Amino acid sequence: MAAKLLPEVEKFLASAPLKGIVGGKDVSGASGETMATLDPGTGRPIAEFCCLTAEDVDRAVGAATHAFKKSGWATMRPNERGALLHRLADAVEKHKEVIGQLEALDAGKLPAHALGDVQNFIDTLRYFTEMALHVEHRTTLAVSGHEARTVRHAWGPCGFIFPWNFPFLLVGWGISPALAAGNTVVIKPAEDTPLSTIYLGRLAREIGIPDGVINVVPGTGSVAGSALSGHPGLRHMSFTGSPEVGRLVAQAAGHNLVPVKLELGGKGAAVVFEDVDIPGTAQKLVNAITFHTGQVCCDATRWLVHKAIYKDFVDECKARLRSVQVGYQMADGTGMGPVVNAKQRARVLGYLEKGKAQGAEAVLAGGAAEVSGHDGFYVKPALLAGTLDNVAAREEIFGPVAFLAQFGNEDEAIAMANDTDYGLANSVWTSDLARANRVAESMVAGNSWINAHNVFPRGVPYGGVNKSGMGGGVLSIETLLDYYRPQSVVRPL
Ligand code: NAD
After folding, report:
1. Which of 29, 182, 113 is nearest to 330 (CA)?
2. Which residue among the candidates 50, 158, 297, 298 is catalytic per the annotation?
3. pLDDT tens digit string along 124-166?
4. Is 454 in the pocket of ligand 1 (CB under 6 A)?
5. Which residues, 6 or more positions from 346, have their beta carbon under 8 angstroms from its beta carbon?
């Protein structure tokens, strides 16, 4: 059964091939090449979009530079810029259902989750817009013998490259602080999920964001992505995606000596002590690993469980995972939709095989799932168990697969949680809050959660260390301040 499309969604898709937006104009791309984005739940094309080239990206950075210097965006008073950004948030709110449906179709998300992502975008944009009103742009310094101050300016054109798992939400997390600070942006959405970002570019133009302030350059990573990350005209670069590509983006930014923010993958641990409520904790971790079919960078993918409760805990998880309804994302009753594409399904299935070949026990086998009438990219949830040197315990799978291991005491649990190249997010589960706080602070990662997983209140910095990222995180005052260029002004007295 095909999803019933909203009229506005039909109208948008009928305008395909969907073009990029550069300097306020629709741009087809110098090569004329297009690419299809698929519905992961059916495997069928939703729409063609234009693949922009290095030449187009160059024009987009040029447009962002021009807008920064000439449109008045960077120099207008923060409250005037704020009024425009609130107007953009209002427009997104007005079209929430439309963007939600585009996102659900394009990324294989359950509609309720897609709507949650759109709301998250709105809230994030308003949050940074309000915060920017209170940033002190000039701070007088009390320095003996000198008149001195620091000044904050916007950087200029900022580049953004995003992955396919949270296309719209991550655009909100990324560009909101940059725009609120007065920068202009060039956004490269993932080739699997360009729809909601192109729609946003059109909305921004319609509501009067000056041309060139928000540019969208859809296309492939190797062409549009690499041209953007290596563009010498950018003044700031932000990348969210895999560590492999993150390294290339960092190299390019390093070459241009441009500050770079990397939000990369993870291999998070959930450390479950013997004093937890077993059914409640099992359900929360099952929810975490099946949320967006496990395609969540900060997911708990290594479940480290105290040996005293290991068997009971695993039995609870197995039963709950078995009852998860795998289905078409747009169908009523679906608990877990598809993964994003055939490559991602092959990746998940490949890790199950590689993990077993290295001695992991398949506690819950997982594997490909059939969904009647829908030829999409479906997998079942899986649980592997074994030692943490297993490839499935070390590398990011990005699917509904958790790796189980047992520990005997707190020190061992901390050592196991930290036995990873990544450092994004872990959680600790116990009714002993002193222990929870000790363990949380001993984990080498950007984020430690207590008796919960995947928690993102605005105001709390979220970012990774080691192979999970660098250059500061997102969602807090520090993020906004990252988008101002610092300057000191001094006069000897
Ligand atoms: P990816 O690295 O393959 O692609 C991300 C983006 O980079 C895409 O837009 C892609 O087109 C582009 N790209 C590809 N090659 C490029 C190149 N040579 N130069 C410049 N850009 C290029 O990642 P993905 O598969 O889309 O997303 C999954 C990854 O993203 C996972 O590792 C996940 O953990 C990570 N992720 C991290 C966070 C976070 O906040 N830390 C959030 C979401 C996803």
Report:
1. 113
2. 297
3. 999 999 999 999 999 999 999 999 999 999 999 999 999 999 9
4. no
5. none
Q: Which residues make beta-bridge pairs with 81?
A: none
Task: Supply the mean pLDDT for the chain.
Answer: 98
Its pTM stands at: 0.97
Is 298 tagged catalytic? no
Extended beta strands in 273-333, E state: 300-306
- Determine which helix (DSSP H) or strand (DSSP E) holds 81, and give its type and residue range: helix 78-94
Q: Whose C-alpha lies nearest to ligand 1, atom 35?
A: 241
Percent pLDDT > 70 in the chain is 100
Q: Provide the token pair at 176.
A: 């909101």
What are the residues facing 411 on neighbouring strands? none
Render pLDDT for 265-288 as a digit per residue (tens, 0 to 9).
Answer: 999 999 999 999 999 999 999 999
Is the CB–ligand 1 distance for residue 241 below 6 Å? yes
Give the per-residue pLDDT at 3.
72
Pick from 37, 166, 245, 301 the residue to mutate for probing ligand 1's pocket: most ligand atoms within 8 Å of its CB: 245
Is the CB of residue 447 below 6 angstroms from any atom belonging to ligand 1? no
CB contact burial 467-483 (16+ within 10 A = b; e otherwise): bbbbbbbbbbeebbebb
**Helices first, then strands: H and E counts in the chain:** 16, 22
| Residue with tokens 């939709």, as numbered in its chain | 337
Residue of 263, 395, 396, 410 marked active site:
263
Q: What is the pLDDT of residues 170-207, one digit of tens each?
A: 999 999 999 999 999 999 999 999 999 999 999 999 99
